[in-house]
Amino acid sequence: MELPFLRSTGKVHREIDVHENDNEFLVNAELPGLNKDQINIDVRDNALIISGETKKDQKYEKGKTLIQERSYGSFTRSISLPPNVKAEDITAKFEDGLLELKLPKSAPTGKKITIE
After folding, report:
1. pLDDT tens digits for 82-109?
2. Which structural domain, as residue segments, surrounds residue 20?
3. Using H for helix, E for strand and C for coil, what is the string for 43-93?
4. CATH value at residue 39
5. What pTM did the predictor assign?
6. Is residue 1 part of a domain?
7. Buried-most residue among 4, 69, 86, 95 (CB within 10 A)?
8. In this protein, which residues make up the domain named SHSP (predicted)?
9. 116 occurs within a structural domain
């Protein structure tokens, strides 16, 4: 399998790992500071799209920030899906800031051609 095409848009960049084994593709995305209600996962046009938004805590709106290393804002990550992914069977789990997606592979299809 060739490395899937990754695309990232938005103000914030989120880290993603994609692994492949015989039965499935595994996608892990680091999404610290979010809860599962702030994450959207869609499959459109043969692409897996993960999006969301990290908002700055309102308690920091007054005063001034001296150091800011965390990123806030919207993000979108798009991964082109290979044709052998069973999109209807994709599962997602989110725990401790890590989103784990399992993308099962479909059985190889083919047809034996009989010579007349």
Report:
1. 889 999 999 999 999 999 999 999 987 7
2. 6-58+65-104
3. EECCEEEEEEEECCCHHHCCCCCCCCCCCCEEEEEEEECCCCECHHHCEEE
4. 2.60.40.790
5. 0.76
6. no
7. 4
8. 7-116
9. no
